[in-house]
Amino acid sequence: MNDPTKDPRFLHDPYPTYTAMRSACPVQAVPTGSGGHSSYLVTGYAEARQALGDPRLSKNTAAFFADKESRRRLHPAVAHNMLASDPPQHARLRKLVTKAFTTGAVTELRPFIGEVTDALLDRWPVGGQVDFVASLAVPLPVIVICKLLGVPEADRPEVQRWSAELFAAGKPDLIDAASHAMAEYMTGLIASKRLEPGDSLLDRLISARDGSDHLSEEELVSLAVLLLIAGHETTTNFLGNAALALLQHPAELERLRSNPEDIPAALDELLRFDSPVSTATFRYTTEAVTLGGADIPAGVPVLVALGAANRDPERFPSPDQLNLDRDAAGHLAFGHGIHRCVGAPLAKAEADIALRAILTRFPRLRLAVPPDQLQWRHTRLVRGLTALPILT
Questions:
Q1: pTM of the predicted structure, to 2 decimals
Q2: Peptide bond preceding 88: is omega within 30 degrees of 0, i.e. cis?
Q3: How large is the average pLDDT for residues 59-64?
Q4: Residue 91 to residues 295, 337, 364: CA-CA distances in angstroms?
């Protein structure tokens, strides 16, 4: 099978391909790159959940690539972060992060999120056309995570650009350069915060302790970069995908407009229906594993298609239907197990506040172009729109 991510039809709607693959076998070998190597792609829900929680599937990318030649020059802070580690290192890092990244911090941020949302929506022309992605889905999460981490306002445009470049599929030199720029910026920001401490999340990470344990300089930079990227890239896609889903299902949109108190409960179904992360981050087998009837040898990458798993009819009946009454809390959009997204409460808070404000302020919201004219980001990892033209 050819790489489906290079097919524009797949980028526009990957779910028919995923359905066909899952029907044939929920776990199957697919070609990787041009060297004749293979990975295993997981499209079934039960198999994906098993893979995400199986300790035999390692995320230690440094160990996997240690003996492999590569022309890539990713900065270690990007290549070797908490997501790319296994226990006990992962457990140690996550424990220190969790001490600073609390649900209380998210609750305290809600008024700020509301203020930023209103300020962005104030720029929307009533009865005109606007790009939902550029005018809200991108700036809102960027502003919020930068505020949380203590990134000065003047630096945010560059930080946003570097983050976008890290997902520039097919442009390895650009990705590598962006990783160095982001890491060097964060190194400088941490140094300045040591000289003039504040009360941001980054300040709390600098002072985080677990007994005598603390974060090293390299770990601090790595976590800061990870939180910054993960804190807004996926939320941008979540907002765009959720808005598009509702605009294509006007009855559900009107239901939420009439009953905004239902929005928090609807978020899980919106996440399931069109997941902002299409494929979970890198994993590989440390020993031979049998998964979904497939015998996977040791030392082989395993790609978990979260978007495919969330459309598995064995777990979610009529999966291609958006049903806001569905109990979708078991979706895998945020992952599963020890690597489940630590920023999930923040992403949900932003989506709740943003959707509530949009539906309240713009009662005539609709798509400005046919859905088949929308452009999707050219990347295997995330699923998101490059633009979403809407009429207000």
A1: 0.92
A2: yes
A3: 86
A4: 29, 12, 48
Between CA 207 and CA 352 the distance in angstroms is 31
CATH of the domain at 34: 1.10.630.10
Strands 37-42 and 302-304: parallel
- Residue 230's nearest CA partner among 334, 336, 94 is 334
Q: Name which residue leads in pLDDT, 105 or 127.
A: 127
Per-residue b or e along 250-286, where b marks 16 or more CB atoms closer than 10 Å to that residue's CB: eebbeebbeeeeebebbbbbbbbbbbbbbbbbbbbbb
Judge residue 111's burial from the number of C-beta atoms within 10 Å of its C-beta, 0-12 exposed, 13-18 middle, 19 or more buried: exposed
Q: Are 54 and 289 in contact (CB under 8 A)?
A: yes
Q: What digits encode the pLDDT tens for the residues 258-301?
A: 999 999 999 999 999 999 999 998 999 999 999 999 999 999 99
Distance CA(181)–CA(176), nearest Å, equals: 9
Domain containing 308 equals 4-391
Structure tokens at 352: 């709740």
Task: Tell me the residue type at 99.
Answer: K
**How many CA atoms lie less than 13 Å away from 119 in the CB half-sphere?**
10
> Domain total for the chain?
1
Residue 302 CA to residue 305 CA, distance in Å, equals 10
d(CA 182, CA 178): 6
pLDDT at 48: 98
Q: Residue ranges of the alpha helices (H) in the chain?
A: 8-12, 15-24, 45-53, 61-65, 76-79, 89-100, 103-121, 132, 139-149, 156-165, 172-195, 201-207, 217-247, 250-258, 263-273, 306-309, 344-361
